[in-house]
Amino acid sequence: MTVYSWLEASTLPPPVTPTTTTIAENPTPIAPPATTPPGTPVIPPPTPVTPPAQHVIVPPIPAPLPAPVEEPLPKRIVERDGIVGGTVSIQAPSHFELKSTDNGNVIDYLYTTSTNVDLRRWKGKAVHVKGEEELDERWPNTPVLTIQRIQVTQ
Fold first, then answer.
1. Distance CA 1, CA 8 (A)
2. Does residue 124 sit within a domain?
3. Rg of the chain over all Cα atoms, to the nearest angstrom
4. Which domain holds residue 113?
């Protein structure tokens, strides 16, 4: 029994071989179309002119500035007159506050680092207080006055 192939080798198309083409960087100009009347001079298109390379002067990069040194703010020493009172909030930075003699609004929270000073004995009395005033981050609207000297004014 003989096996025949349906396609014979002679009927197959030849294999396709890839070809490479290169494109010229400056192609030659194509002749103008034949629609120009005879005897008209043919002017070739202008050749592009490449501008000369420009030299750019780059200034040197300055050295980075040193990081700013954070200095602590100077102490703010103040003198205040008012009436010593107790605080209402249990979260206040101190148990005592200095109230204005004019309208009763809180001027400062009173704080002392000394364990010998008991501010309860000045509660309800008009006093003159001298000390360092600073802000507590939890109470940004009312400063804390660390007492250096306190005197009764009545």
1. 18
2. yes
3. 48
4. 77-152
For 7-54, give the DSSP string.
S-GGGSPPPP--------SSPPPPPPPTTSPTTPPPPPPPPPPPPPPP
Residue 95 sits in a domain whose CATH number is: 2.40.50
Asked whether the whole model's pTM tops 0.70, one would answer: no
Does residue 3 lie in a domain region? no
Q: How many helices (H) and strands (E) does the chain have?
A: 0, 5
Side chain identity at residue 61, one-letter code: I
pLDDT, one tens digit per residue, over 46-69 is 777 777 777 778 888 888 888 888
- Under a CB-based contact definition with an 8 Å cutoff, are residues 139 and 92 in contact? yes
Q: Tens digit of pLDDT for each residue in 97-134?
A: 999 999 989 999 998 888 888 888 889 999 999 999 98
Query: By the 8 A CB rule, do 91 and 66 touch?
Result: no
- Based on the structure, what is the number of domains in the chain? 1
